[in-house]
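Input (structure):
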């Protein structure tokens, strides 16, 4: 039996009414989801959205601007326009839509790097192995590339690592303001961002609170490219400590407040180790705020469930439900006080490290 054949134990199909033409069409579209993702990736890589201004342009003009062949570019634009990314005008030119504008690098809430990140070359190797990951419950990344995901990213896929950093930077920037507005830092004089990426959330908080001190902990390759404001010579450097390390091994940082945002999405063992390391490092009474997108409370179930599956493939991880994250935090010894939305996509789990008996 090949991997694509149904098992001999499959039940015979139940008698059912003939499928509606709409459902058949929708399923055909679904199985071509890769074409849709590839088209968006091609538009982002070619820089079509950046080349198109506010005036509609012909495929020929756009082809000249992005150094492509006009006929295949027109086909690409037609496919994209069928999904509402760009639109074709009555005279056969192409214009921006809300969605295509967000592929511009200079768009205020640009999704260009998120579009590239979600369609990086390794994803196209990983998706066909989803059935394996579902069977085994494990990530397939080590089988594919001989090492764990973040090791591969930093050792072998420099371009992908840069796209990842930029995608994280863009989404951090977009959520940093929301988080800074959300967090009440009364009585907090030091904050540590664990797995804080290049430090946009931290820099935002340090700029907002001039007496605050901050620590950014992340992997060495990420710390090396921290936000220039936080590095030596930067405007916030005298209030910042940069710590290169693995938070699953140790968190050698003392702070009043620990922020752990969008990193507890790997396997549960890594999450347990990270939370226990925070509890071990923190003084009793310190505050630990975990910020995550929840799979059971999201305005975008299709995006979040897709990301959940990608996390299964690459790091053996998952997007959490409210219950699963509460369970892991409580097991680690944290007292969760409340769970509140930071914005429609993110929830903050506000907790404290209990006084040791
Ligand atoms: C999805 S990003 C989130 C970044 C940032 N917290 C934010 O919300 O924008 C996950 C971060 O975890 C970091 N990370 C992954 N494994 C880590 C580890 N073992 N120790 C410390 N940081 C790690 C990655 O380098 C990356 O910056």
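Output (sequence):
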């Amino acid at each position: 039996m090949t991997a694509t054949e149904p098992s001999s134990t499959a039940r015979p199909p139940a008698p059912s009414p003939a499928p509606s033409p709409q459902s058949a069409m929708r399923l055909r579209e679904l199985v071509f989801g890769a074409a849709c993702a590839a088209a968006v990736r091609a538009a982002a890589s070619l820089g079509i959205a950046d080349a198109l201004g506010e005036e509609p342009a012909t495929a020929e003009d756009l082809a000249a601007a992005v150094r492509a062949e006009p006929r295949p570019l027109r086909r690409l634009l037609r496919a994209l326009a069928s999904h509402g990314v760009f639109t074709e005008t009555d005279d056969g030119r192409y214009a921006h839509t809300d969605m295509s504008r967000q592929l511009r690098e200079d768009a205020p809430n640009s999704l260009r790097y998120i579009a590239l990140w979600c369609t990086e070359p390794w994803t196209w190797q990983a998706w066909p192995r989803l059935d394996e990951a579902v069977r085994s419950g494990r990530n397939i990344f080590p089988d594919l590339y001989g090492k764990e995901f973040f090791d591969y990213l930093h050792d072998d896929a420099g371009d992908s690592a840069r796209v990842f950093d930029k995608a994280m930077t863009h989404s951090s920037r977009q959520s940093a303001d929301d988080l800074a507005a959300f967090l009440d830092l009364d009585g907090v004089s030091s904050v540590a961002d664990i797995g804080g990426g290049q430090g946009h959330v931290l820099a935002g908080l340090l700029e907002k609170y001039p007496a605050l001190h901050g620590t950014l902990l992340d992997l060495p390759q990420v710390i090396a490219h921290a936000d220039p404001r936080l590095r030596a010579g930067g405007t916030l450097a005298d209030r910042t400590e940069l710590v290169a390390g693995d938070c699953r091994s140790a968190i050698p940082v003392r702070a009043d407040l620990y922020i752990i945002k969008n990193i507890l999405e790997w396997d549960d063992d890594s999450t347990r180790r990270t939370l226990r390391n925070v509890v071990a490092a923190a003084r009793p009474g310190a505050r630990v705020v975990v910020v995550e997108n929840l799979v059971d409370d999201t305005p975008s179930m299709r995006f979040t469930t897709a990301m959940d599956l990608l996390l299964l493939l690459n790091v053996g991880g998952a997007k959490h439900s409210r219950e699963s994250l509460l369970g892991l935090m409580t097991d680690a010894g944290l007292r969760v006080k409340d769970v509140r939305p930071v914005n429609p996509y993110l929830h903050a789990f506000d907790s404290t490290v209990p006084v040791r008996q």
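Notes: Residues 126 and 144 are 8 Å apart (CA to CA). The pocket of S-adenosylmethionine is lined by residues 150, 168, 172, 195-197, 218-219, 222, 246-248, 261-263 (CB under 6 Å).
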